[in-house]
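Weekly structure sync, notes
Attendees: PL (lead), two postdocs, one rotation student
Agenda item 3: pending single-chain targets
PL asked that the sequence for the first pending target be pasted directly into the notes so everyone works from the same version. It is reproduced below exactly as submitted, 307 residues in total.
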Amino acid sequence: MANAFYLGLGTVIRFQGKDRCKVFNNLCTQDLRQLAHGQAVETFVTDVKGRTFGHGIAAAWGEEAFLITVPGQAERLVPHFDRYIIREDAQVSDVSAMFPFWLFRNRETAALGLGVPIDALPAAKNCVSLPIGNVETLVMHAPWLNDDSILVLAPGDAQSAALRDHLGEQWMESDLVIRAAWEHDRISAFWPWYGVDLDERNLPQEVDRNVSAISFNKGCYLGQETIARLDMLGQIQKKLVLLEIDTHELPAASSPIYADDKEVGHVTSVGRQASLDVCLAFGYVKRSHFRPGQLLTVSGFSAKVLR
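Predicted structure, written out during the meeting:
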């Protein structure tokens, strides 16, 4: 099992200017007004209807803030933020090509790859800048694989070569699109993937990341009325759940989910660890069947809602 993954290019959007956090905050569910140097928090980006226009990590370092998310999102997100800049001192730009992603399963492997002591690595919801090959590199807590996983935005081929040298055989080349090598762990960690497990058709509460990604106490932001009303009424009609399916065969990602003979949802992502006879899946399930412990069926196999 690999402990580090070279992933290639994701999406990195940079915010600059003295009003950068104000602009960032105005279109996100997380309270980013006071996003401080060294913080890295999860957030949804919302549209005027309160739906999920994006999802990722908001990070701040020095005089810049960043949104880190899945590949291919800059063409949508940069204009989305830019259109709401009126008189603010803020500039939004796509810097994805500057920062290939490295993902570390745990702090120990990240310390090995970076050549630093473990206590130099960021705590939960934080980021730091550390030298790789004499170049300062942004390193952040990113719960993509587990509560301890670390994401590194390595700014160039020389830095990636240094990481490979330090890691020896512990790393592997993977993919931000297919994710085959780490899909099981991502699903187990309940980290949804934008464009796969959620998109602009979903409301944030349907993704079940309320505690980590939504502030219900912040000021006005785009789409807030819908999200606040839904929070007050508490009536989401479907929700993303974690399923354990009793099979070593991977069901198709679009497989329907049944309760008895009634279709109650559909699968979005599936993954399996080679040593296990069960697989994990994300799927949307109707309100009547999304409680933990609920027994369902996927592709003829029994499935249980874990979360």
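Discussion points:
- The chain has a mean pLDDT of 94.
- The two ends are 25 Å apart (CA to CA).
Action: rotation student to compare against the earlier draft before next sync.
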